[in-house]
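note to self: dont lose this again. the chain is below, predicted strucutre after it. 197 aa total, dont forget to put it in the shared folder this time
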Amino acid sequence: MTSTYSITVTNEATPRITLATIDFAGSEAVAVPFDDLSALSTDQAAVIYIVSHAVPNALKVGNRFVPEAELVMRLAEQRKGLPTLVILDTCFAESFADIPGLEWPPHFGRIFSCRAFERSWHTGAPERQSLFSGALNWAMRSCIANRCSATLERNLRERLGDLQQAVVDDSAYEFLEKVLALPRTKLPSKLASQLTS
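---
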């Protein structure tokens, strides 16, 4: 396991799905157009970071809106049962949590940049970096340093303040524990040092 984690994304009119494999320190993120998901890994655990414009329950792709069910089905088809952490950095992100008539695959963890009724914010021109991406970067570094994921949502909310409330689904904690070895409860220091040595 590595001890570094970094995300930098921009809010752009054209959505990208940014993929990073679980080896965060050594991996390059790959921008993947939504209409061609073939570049997504099909043989290892992955983090898929989606940044786009959205309305409740739909992602904006070019001049059309992709319903949440289509998004989930396309990602599930490409990922074929592999552990996957989906991070939605969009306005109304949590509206993608519950999809009528469709369940997210059980091997998908989910983190939402804001509540279902909130907008997601960026730093403004010229970089237009997502505020959530900076908060997530900071919160994940804290979790990795403490060898525990329990504080992830609290750290995100602390960092974002009243602007937006990030939501970390229980499935995301399961992914972090299984794939990144970040348990939800802090291990005693002696046991933690034995596991990392």
